[in-house]
Amino acid sequence: MTFSIVARGTDGSGRPAYGVAVASKFLAVGAAVPAADPVAGALATQSMANLAYRPQGLALLRSGTAAADVVAGLTAADPLRDERQLGVVGPTGDGATHTGAHCLDWAGGTTGDGFAIQGNILAGPGVVEAMRVAYLDSSGPLAERLVAALRAGDEAGGDRRGRQSAALLVAVANAGYGADPAVPYLGDTGSHLAVDLRVDDHPAPVAELARLLTAHHLYFDRPDPASLLPLTGPLADEVRALLAGLGHAASGEPARGLDDALAEWAGIENYEVRLSPGRIDPLVLDRLRASAPR
Fold first, then answer.
1. Sorted alphabetically, which PANTHER family does this protein's record hold (predicted)?
2. 185 or 254: which carries more pLDDT confidence?
């Protein structure tokens, strides 16, 4: 009833990343299937998902256990292993996948260097193959590659019962909300969920997940410093007028007043991660212009 990809890669800054993308004709699939650790690996448990696999599997990965041995260990101790599917990836080598003998057709999976793909009650084996090809043909940040694979599986027929939910989980050391990526990895005390998006009930969940990932980048990615525009001259005058029209007039010393007014508006609109004193992110500028009264 579910198809997923588990993989390792890098984020937009080149840091190691581990993640899972999953879709299903099942309510809120993201609440059950994915688990990821920023330095050890990731896994997906599905087809009568065994939620105990998530903490147990991550613990094994943190101990240095290879992906194939994690799969073997978890399933060997599970009396319902013939009903389960499991995909695991670790820091090195191929991913590993398990499809129980009693999973409903079509069910199966494939693995390669740094990924595992699996699904059950699918339109056919072409779903898994389409995901494999799309993942290997893609490049860039892991989150985008995972969504590309998930979209390919969906377009190849996906879950043969239909569509309902999808989710994307990516772990990167100290890259979660409020974390400072410059701080060394501090284990579980840090914020490591770089992307944690869920579409719980939607007629087109994979497309909606892709839209949410775009929004996630807007709200949570730090801007490239080279792209920032100085808030001086005509641009400063324009931004000051736009903010005033939205009820956030600058006051006091010109530069400081403009920064404060921009921060007030950006805080309300949730763009505060993109702020830089004396400069403005082009994406924030576009949103400011679009928000101005007509």
1. BLL2871 PROTEIN
2. 185
Contact 61, 37 (CB under 8 A): yes
- Please compute the mean of the pLDDT values over residues 242-247 and round it to a whole number: 94
Partners of 199 in the beta sheet? Answer: 166
Pairing of strands 115-120, 2-10: antiparallel
Which residues in 130-161 are b (16+ Cβ under 10 Å) and which e? bbbebbeebeebbbbbbbbbbbbbbebebbbe
The number of beta carbons lying within 10 Å of the beta carbon of residue 14 is 8
Kindly report the average pLDDT of the chain as a whole number: 94
- Which residue has tokens 């009693």? 102
Q: What is the mean pLDDT of residues 123-135?
A: 97
Whether residue 174 is found in the same domain as residue 213 = yes
Is beta strand 229-230 parallel, antiparallel or unpaired with respect to 41-46? Answer: unpaired
Domain with 38 in it: 2-220
Collapsed DSSP state (helix, strand, coil) of residue 234: helix
Which of 198, 220, 242 is the last residue in one of the domains?
A: 220
pLDDT at 255: 65
What is the tally of structural domains in the chain? 2
Same domain, 125 and 254: no
The pTM for the full model equals 0.91
